């Protein structure tokens, strides 16, 4: 463990022992008044006043709330304020626990994470700890390393995520995960947070989407709570921001993000960011942010290959078997799905969920006929066509050059060769005409495209590197 983390743990323990008896209901009354200043009287009256303070024990502050929903809402929306104000008042509280009054006789209810958009309704996972750090609100309990299937396309991203989750000395900062839709970026980020929470419960791990960052920033500005906002973000040990491309073009949010980022990096706190493309290709993102996003470790989640998709389906089937015992699935069905639905794991998962639900309703075995009946719309939509845009994006990522340089006028070999590769793929993998391809590459003439195609045809036979690049790009585009 790094020096910093060790020092922090000792300090926390010392304070906790001294202060467990100290925290009283009277003190809570003072603290909650401070929260009123931070969140406004309306929200305070609705959400904070009804909280009944219980105790602080082992670094966990417990409250009784009217319902589980109430607890979840407070945890998600005001948890950080409560933690921050408690700590400011001298308490060394690491977590909050909200027990619903009705359930208290049985078991305290955790202020558990709400469901991710496509997730099952929020409920603490079986066996989950009975309290969750408020800063972990929003985590899907299913998105763990155990449930993440590793294959060639995602092995590097997985290894980097594992390294961060060990919570040791910060070696690369930030870890930037990028890739297309539904390839597992969010899953890996949640897995890091779950693992850190289990290994180092004293650490404050904050996961949020870039959109949430923006809304919190705007409401802090509106309610004149910028000091609290800054303190809150600077108090975290690990910050994870998902879908960072969302803040591109949003100037003041970018400005605040930039300062938050710098403050955390300066104090050697780990940052994990995800995006749908390379930082360098994020149009409308300020240059200073793009360069900072690239200064740690940048890893790509490549499109899944057939083997990985089959692996993911098999792992999901195992979980479904617990839910739908006795359901039979014919041989060849998973391979068929993995072959036909290739671009997005989320769609693949959705297809399987629908199949299991349908088969259990009608009491039928899952066969290829059932797949055709039940998934015709998904299968139709997955018969996708490859576009010139996609080819350009993949080629520029592959050769690590900017999209604008791939398309632009620069004639250096460093740009010209990838451009010829992209033109060749556009000719051989789409049914676009030569003039149209020329137009899409910065308004070039169709004879330039013919020359590029011929040149790559020639090189394919004698340059092993080009042959390998073409093969890899083709596989990624077809995936
Ligand atoms: N390797 C994998 N193993 C198991 N499940 C996976 C894997 N990759 C993706 N999934 C599942 O696919 C779904 C979509 O993944 P996730 O939300 O992490 O994608 P994403 O890359 O963040 O997509 P987006 O950019 O659209 O937000 C999730 O339910 C996730 O559990």
From TrEMBL:
Its main location: cytoplasm. Residues 112-136 are annotated as: Disordered. Residues 112-122 have a biased composition (Low complexity). One of its GO terms (cellular component) is plasma membrane. It is found in: Cytoplasm. Gene3D superfamilies: 1.10.1750.10, 1.10.8.60, 3.30.300.180, P-loop containing nucleotide triphosphate hydrolases. ATP binds at residues 182, 184-186. Residues 1-111 are annotated as: Domain I, interacts with DnaA modulators. The keyword ATP-binding applies. GO terms for biological process: DNA replication initiation; regulation of DNA replication. Oligomerizes as a right-handed, spiral filament on DNA at oriC. Belongs to the DnaA family. Plays an essential role in the initiation and regulation of chromosomal replication. ATP-DnaA binds to the origin of replication (oriC) to initiate formation of the DNA replication initiation complex once per cell cycle. Binds the DnaA box (a 9 base pair repeat at the origin) and separates the double-stranded (ds)DNA. Forms a right-handed helical filament on oriC DNA; dsDNA binds to the exterior of the filament while single-stranded (ss)DNA is stabiized in the filament's interior. This is Chromosomal replication initiator protein DnaA. It comes from Pseudoroseicyclus tamaricis.
């Amino acid at each position: 463990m790094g020096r910093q983390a060790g020092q922090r743990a000792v300090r926390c323990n010392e304070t906790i022992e001294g202060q467990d008896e100290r925290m009283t209901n009277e003190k809570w009354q003072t603290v909650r008044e401070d929260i009123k200043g931070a969140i406004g009287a309306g929200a305070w009256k609705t959400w904070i006043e009804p909280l009944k303070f219980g105790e602080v024990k082992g670094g966990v502050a417990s409250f009784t709330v009217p319902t589980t929903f109430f607890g979840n809402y407070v945890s998600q929306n005001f948890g950080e304020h409560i933690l921050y104000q408690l700590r400011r008042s001298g308490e060394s509280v690491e977590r909050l626990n909200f027990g619903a009054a009705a359930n208290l006789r049985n078991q305290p209810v955790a202020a558990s994470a709400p469901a991710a958009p496509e997730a099952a309704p929020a409920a603490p996972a079986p066996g989950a700890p009975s309290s969750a750090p408020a800063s972990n609100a929003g985590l899907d309990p299913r998105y763990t390393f155990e449930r993440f299937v590793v294959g060639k396309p995602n092995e590097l991203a997985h290894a980097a995520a594992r390294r961060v989750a060990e919570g040791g000395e910060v070696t690369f900062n930030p870890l930037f995960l990028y890739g297309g839709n539904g390839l597992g970026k969010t899953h890996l980020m949640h897995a890091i947070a779950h693992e850190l929470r289990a290994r180092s419960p004293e650490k404050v791990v904050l996961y949020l989407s870039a959109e949430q960052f923006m809304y919190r920033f705007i409401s802090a500005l509106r309610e004149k709570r910028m000091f609290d906002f800054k303190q809150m973000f600077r108090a975290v040990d690990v910050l994870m921001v998902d879908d960072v491309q969302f803040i591109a073009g949003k100037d003041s949010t970018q400005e605040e993000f930039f300062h938050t980022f710098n403050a955390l990096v300066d104090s050697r706190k780990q940052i994990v960011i995800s995006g749908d493309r390379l930082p360098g290709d994020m149009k409308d993102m300020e240059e200073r942010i793009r360069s900072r996003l690239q200064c740690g470790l940048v890893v790509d989640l490549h499109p899944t290959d057939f083997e990985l998709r089959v692996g993911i389906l098999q792992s999901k089937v195992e979980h479904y078997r617990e839910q739908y015992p006795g359901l039979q699935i014919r041989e060849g069905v998973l391979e068929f799905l993995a072959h036909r639905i290739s671009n997005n794991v989320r769609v693949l998962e959705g297809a399987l969920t629908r199949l299991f639900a349908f088969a259990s309703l009608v009491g039928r075995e899952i066969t290829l006929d059932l797949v055709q009946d039940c998934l015709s719309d998904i299968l139709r939509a997955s018969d996708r066509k490859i576009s010139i845009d996609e080819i350009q994006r993949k080629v520029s990522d592959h050769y690590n050059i900017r999209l604008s340089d791939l398309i632009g006028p620069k004639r250096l070999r460093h740009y010209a060769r990838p451009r010829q590769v992209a033109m060749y793929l556009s000719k051989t993998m789409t049914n676009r005409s030569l003039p149209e391809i020329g137009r899409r590459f910065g308004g070039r003439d169709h004879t330039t495209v013919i020359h590029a195609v011929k040149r790559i045809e020639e090189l394919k036979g004698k340059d092993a590197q080009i042959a390998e690049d073409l093969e890899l790009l083709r596989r990624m585009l077809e995936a």
